[in-house]
Specification:
2 domains; 5-stranded mixed sheet; Aminopeptidase; alpha+beta
Length: about 270
């Protein structure tokens, strides 16, 4: 695995654009919206690609048959050289990469969440498609807002705890304010829940959502997400949703908001 220089990211654009799965997080790296890492098998004519987003998401695609690349990949996946200090979640395409990963990892791959955390854990990632007709039937139930919802500013978000926040998906505060969008629900004078664009490209907006732990279970995420979805509809944007199937709250919330599962993919949690 050879780390590609930022100026050479252009070599990844065409191969990546042909992928029929949700890859907006990887595109954010290639388009320099966030500072991630890109690895290839060959600098001049790359055929295998590995893109890592700073939030902890990654994508591998392309040729599966480069032995040197795959040897380096094995070391990376098991974190042999301690290049990671946090979990990373890997998505692979096409199916041949999933077969190759299973072969490369052997006993280092497990499918039981309670198994050894020092091994790679296989989960499932779900890609959804937004069904506007389904959402519009449900929308009247969301029209009455009991709590104020405001446009998210950095000042609003600075005091909010959580791991899914714009600062982890955008290069800086100004970039989020200029290119992104978010809405926050206020409860007792503080931000209780926020929905925002974790990625935004042309007519697509991927939704990120965070609710402060003490306010979970009150339906705040449903309410604030609907405001962001309304914004998408009004501005000709397609809302994008993806999550781990094991993330039951997110999976169920997507269904309530008019999203339909369209693709189930293996998803690998890489150890620290």
């Amino acid at each position: 695995m050879i780390k590609l220089e930022v100026n050479d990211y252009v070599q990844v654009v065409a191969p990546m654009e042909s992928l029929p799965i949700n890859i907006l997080f990887a595109k954010a790296v290639i388009d320099h919206k966030v500072s991630g890492s890109v690895y290839v098998d060959n600098v001049k004519e790359p055929q295998a690609f590995y893109i890592a987003h700073p939030y902890g998401m990654s994508l591998i695609f392309g040729d599966t048959n480069n032995d040197m690349f795959n040897d380096d990949l094995f070391h990376y996946l098991i974190n042999k050289d301690k290049v990671r200090n946090h979990y990373e979640w890997l998505q692979a395409f096409p199916t041949s990469w999933n077969r190759k990963i299973e072969t490369i990892l052997g006993s280092n791959l497990v499918k039981n969440a309670s198994a050894d955390l020092n091994r790679v854990l296989q989960n499932t990632r779900v890609n959804f498609t937004f069904n506007i007709s389904k959402y519009m039937k449900f929308r009247p139930q969301l029209d009455t807002q009991e709590h104020p919802i405001v446009r998210s500013t950095q000042e609003v978000l600075n005091t909010m705890p959580g791991s899914v926040l714009p600062k982890y998906f955008w290069g800086n505060d100004d970039q989020f304010q200029n290119e992104g969008i978010g809405f926050s629900l206020i409860y007792d004078g503080e931000v209780a829940s926020t929905a925002f664009s974790s990625c935004r490209f042309e007519n697509q907006l991927e939704i990120g959502i965070e609710t402060v732990e003490k306010y979970r279970g009150k339906g705040f995420a449903l309410t604030v997400c609907s405001v962001l979805i309304n914004y998408c509809i009004e501005n000709g944007l397609e809302p994008i949703w993806a999550c781990r199937m094991e993330n039951t709250p997110s999976y169920q919330l997507a269904h309530k908001l008019g999203f339909t599962p369209t693709l189930y993919l293996p998803y690998y949690r890489l150890p620290v």
